[in-house]
Amino acid sequence: MRQRHGEIQAKGADVVAISFEPRDRLFQLTRQLQLPFPILSDPERDVYAAYSLAQGSLLKIFSPKTVWAYLKHFARGRRYEHATSDWRQLGGDFVLGEDGTVLFEHRGQTPSDRPTVASLIERLGG
């Protein structure tokens, strides 16, 4: 998302990420990863509930695909520092129209179940 942020903006769109992590942790993460878009804190998970984002079972959370994704992440020398994380909370990706209408929705079934950035950009049209 960071690498293609300019392309997203060129289509007249913005990126906003939402996490249940505390604001100070998200500020640190934004600086560490040099993200050109904000990450908003939703510790009560109101947005998660509004978009029907569920918690996964332990089988889904520690599926072979998810474990492999984390192994690749660590092999690249990246760290995963989420001491306060709820490992069971699943995420989602949504493209909203200017009026707030959901144009595309993807609710993850595992932590690594995400659409590609290219597929999200395709949904922007324009």
Helix and strand arrangement:
Layout: H1 5-10, E1 17-19, H2 23-33, E2 39-41, H3 46-50, H4 58-61, H5 64-75, E3 92-96, E4 102-107, H6 117-124
Parallel strand pairs: 1-2
Antiparallel strand pairs: 3-4
Task: Please characterize this protein's 3D structure.
With 126 residues, the protein is an alpha+beta fold. The chain has 6 helices and 4 strands. The strands form 2 sheets. It has a two-stranded parallel sheet. A two-stranded antiparallel ribbon has the order 3-4. The chain is globular, with a radius of gyration of 15 Å. 4% of the residues are buried. The mean pLDDT is 85.
List key phrases describing it.
single chain, 126 residues, alpha+beta, Glutaredoxin, two-stranded parallel sheet, two-stranded antiparallel sheet, 4 strands
CATH homologous superfamily caption: Glutaredoxin
SSE series: HEHEHHHEEH
Could you give the order of strands across the largest sheet?
Answer: 1-2
CATH architecture: 3-Layer(aba) Sandwich
Q: How would you sum up the major sheet?
A: 2 strands, parallel
Query: What is the CATH third-level topology name?
Result: Glutaredoxin
Distance between the terminal alpha carbons, to the nearest Å? Answer: 18 Å
Q: Regarding CATH, which class? A: Alpha Beta
Q: What's the tally of helices?
A: 6
Number of strands: 4
Please mark out the parts with pLDDT under 50 across 5 or more consecutive residues, or reply none: none
The outline comes out as globular
User: Helix share of residues?
Assistant: 25-40%
> In angstroms, what is the radius of gyration?
15 Å
Our count of domains comes out at 1
Overall pLDDT score: 85
Strand content: 5-15%
- What structural class results from the helix and strand content? alpha+beta
